[in-house]
Amino acid sequence: MDHNLQSIPAPHFDLEKTLNSGQVFHWTRLGRGFVGALAENLVYLEQAGETIRVTAWHAKAAAHYLALDHPLPEILKTFPVDPVIQTAIQFSEGLRIIRQPQWECLATFLTSPLKQVQHIRAISLAIRKRFGRRLQRDGMEVFSYPRPEQVSGIPLAELLECKLGFRAANLLATAKIVASGEMDLEALRNLSTEDARAALCELPGVGEKIANCVLLFAYDRLDAVPVDVWIARVLNEVYFAGRLKVPLRELKSFAAHYFGSYAGYAQQYLFHHWRLTYRRR
Q1: What is the CATH topology of the domain spanning 103-218?
Q2: CB under 8 Å, gap of 24 or more: what pairs does 81-87 form?
Q3: Fold type of domain 1-69
Q4: Among residues 49, 45, 40, 72, which one has the least CA distance to residue 59?
Q5: Which helix or strand (DSSP H or E) is residue 44 part of?
Q6: Which of its termini does the chain have fewer beta carbons within 10 Å around, N or C?
Q7: Going by DSSP bridges, is the β-strand pair 51-55/28-30 parallel, antiparallel, or unpaired?
Q8: Which residues pair with 52 in a beta bridge?
Q9: What is the pLDDT of residues 98-146, one digit of tens each?
Q10: Nearest one of 108, 138, 119, 146 to 33, comparing CA atoms
């Protein structure tokens, strides 16, 4: 496989942390690297110091997907100098906010409510294997995420067999809206973050948290802050210590203003750190 790999510069980057940080759910460990689907293309990635070795036919697309152009050191300098975020930065060093395909990101987070990362991953892989395209090359095999046109035609009972529960109806209804052209996901790029969020929240099953995940992980809106149970816990325990029942809207407003124009990055670093260390405290 080595002769098919192309090296691309990847300073200030950690592949494993990025792919296992709860923003994307289908990459699978293979040898020294990871294999997965980038849209409908099979891609293999492995890290070698400050370079990423990638299946040569998709090197440019992989560099864009992994956001290797984000000025990470400059982004981190914008964060407040407080011990909680600085510890999260050290723990999450090299983690980047990737750029996912819009439909794939939206669909995956529609299956996420009340689920932990490993459960979201299991659902994503089940949907891919049953309804996606089989992608094979050089002895590797992965499955793409089915397009909205495909999902819209899947009987609800078959989706339920992928253990989606109540999420299946929302995924199916949203797929029909996107497939029909009633919602143009690409056109959301032209809207302000606020307007794009409002448009996404009109879709079945999409609330502000899922909308912010999609804006952050698929639209490069690095100021979007998804407030899930982990982020609410950090904010409540650290930044609102001693106060009871802080309203969610106040938590969201605080995070957006306190962490600034790259608040999405701060959120992801805090999420990654607290999710993996909280139970050891």
Answers
A1: Endonuclease III; domain 1 (1.10.340)
A2: 84/234, 84/238, 84/239, 84/270, 85/259, 85/266, 85/269, 85/270, 87/273
A3: TATA-Binding Protein (3.30.310)
A4: 45
A5: strand 41-48
A6: C
A7: unpaired
A8: 8, 47
A9: 999 999 999 999 999 888 899 999 999 999 999 999 999 989 999 999 9
A10: 138
